[in-house]
Design goal:
Helix content is 21%, strand content 28%. By secondary structure, it is an alpha+beta fold. Strand 1 and strand 2 form a beta hairpin.
Amino acid sequence: MLRLTCPYCGAAADETELTPGGEAHLTRHGPGSSDEAFEGYLFLRKNPYGVHFERWRHAHGCGKWFHAARDTRSLQVFGTYSAQVTRPPQDIIDRIAATHPGFDWEAGQ
């Protein structure tokens, strides 16, 4: 079972206490954007077999949204962090790189 720690209230919650929100760090496109950009925002998502950055909501806790970095192959969680940032904290990137040599956050985004 997937277990994540909410970075806001500190509670370790299993996935039944959380609501998934899909891929993290998306560029939002809405009214006024091109049809291609809006289509990409609505429908085109990564679904990697490996390192993935996701949005989660602590639904049965503090109710706040946060991001999690994890490996979809092994369910290894590299860390959780605020949803109000545009990139993962450096310590999480370093943890991923230690397990996945050659991992490059910039290349993956």
